[in-house]
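Lecture 7, part B: from sequences to assemblies.

Below are the input chains for today's worked example.
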Amino acid sequence: MGIVSEVLSVHSRKPIFGYKAMVFSILAILVLSFIVWAHHMFVTGLNPNLGAVFTLFTLLIAIPSAIKVFNWIGTVWRGKVRLSSAALFAIGFVSMFITGGLTGIILGNSAIDIQLHDTMFVVAHFHIVMGVAAFFGMFAGVYHWFPRLYGKYMNETLGQIHFYVTLIGSYCIFFPMHFMTGLPRRYYTYAQFETFNNFNFLAEFISMAAIVVFIGQLIFVVNFFYSIFKGSKVVGEKAADGHEYANPWGATTLEWTAPVERIHGNWPGEIPSVHRWPYDYSVGGRDYIPQTEPLKPGEVSHD
Amino acid sequence: MQTSTVDHAHTDTHHDHVHGHEEHHHEETFLTKYIFSQDHKMISKQFLITGIFWGIVGGLLSILFRLQLGWPNETFPFLETFLGKWAEGGKISSEFYYAMVTMHGTILVFFVLTGGLSGTFANLLIPYQVGTRDMASPFINMLSYWFFLGASVVMLLSFFIQTGPASGGWTAYPPINGLRDTGVNLGSGLGFDLWILGMTLFICSSLLGGLNYIATVLNQRTKGMSMFKMPLTMWALMFTAVIGVLSFPALLAGCVLLEFDRLLDTSFYLNNIIINGQLLGYKVVLLFCSSTCSGSWVTRRCISSFYQLWVL
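Predicted structure of the full complex, as structure tokens:
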């Protein structure tokens, strides 16, 4: 979520929408995550009254999650979005998070969960919101910070192909699973159950999509290792200290004030000081203002 | 996109000062730079590349069991070439199917989306974005990766033992995982012992890393970097570390108690299981947890928290 917030803001050239709301939403999710554990146990003979309590806490997580989704959309809304691989994966994350989050609201209800427990509906929910969405966040981060890690760029064309294959393929895998309600998960074979024969086509389709998505990930792996050695170099400007500095995405944060070369200790001289929040994009007639730039007279700090 | 923009005119950095950090820097050997590195950037790369390796393995496992689910009546002769007795006649055995599902979950949940994701980005971004030269303890940070690699080696080894890897589900619920010789799934023997050992090493790695991340964010921010001037990545990575530090020890305790049940005949989880007419756990000595539910509660609470861990 943090990575996505950062990537969306940088590539939309807009300040993050609702910074403090985002912080407190993360905190709220953290706190609530410790008191929802029995939503895995609705069918274990748990007292229904206790189940109701855990249903309540589970559904409460939807509030900070929805705030975050709203803020991500607010960040991108009417921004000058650069549809780079990093931005695409960040947007894909939001899409997956919404899709998986909505089914979370369904499953969080103990009465419904009793029907859906251990079916493919749960597999769909879990994989979309925790699996695919998390992978999308990770890919967004790798594409965005690859220049910082290796001083090179990843191939953008391969990145975009990777994104579309993964997005479409992942939905092809997991979306049909929502319609396999009643089909129990963790079964080696359903051959003995004639009633499940009508899911055979979907199972085959999902398997084909999974193979395509897996091959799509190999595009990323090839791109990653190829770019480490043969990727186009990040070209910066040479400063008086002899080091080269670059800020390829025009970001405000401190990591881009360090030399392109990854030196031990990060900065050759003193560590930079910070004067402003990290989301001054498209303000004051400028594309971005680094965190290291002092506030102008009359300018108000965000914290 | 690739035009660089350098804006140093207004910064407080003094890049022309030569008396900075570099002056005291010693030459590094290949071993200290690439292998036993204490540099957060190199450790980040180590986590990332190990995570990518595990991502491929975990993804490949899902492809294999999707072959079974998608085409349950077909045979795939090439599988026998690679998997031997686990896919005789080109059909994946039910034993190995459950082992693959178990290891797919374990690998992707813990080794990719927890270790790979958090390890990579916390290590790369925290020192850079809060403005410090490295983690609060670079040495502990190095240990964090090496515990992770140790856990990875143990998990990988479990694929090559005679009984196959753990096959009782990535959530490791008792009672199926509380007994070594169930006669139901071979992987519940040595395979699951290695799973617990691997998870123990992994949890050590996460705790060492997590404490370091929290300490660095709270104590080593550069001048002017108040908490509300931090990028949201810092908040998310810090809170992720907090969840990990609070919940992983409970999982570790749950795993160790489970292994006690398996090896020492205790009954933290199994006191109602009767095998061969004998009530298991009747000989229990260790009673500090007093009931089976306490242990399973711990495990479940933990797993629930993990669901929120890597998405923050």
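Note for the exam: The two ends of chain B are 29 Å apart (CA to CA). Keep this in mind when comparing with the next example.
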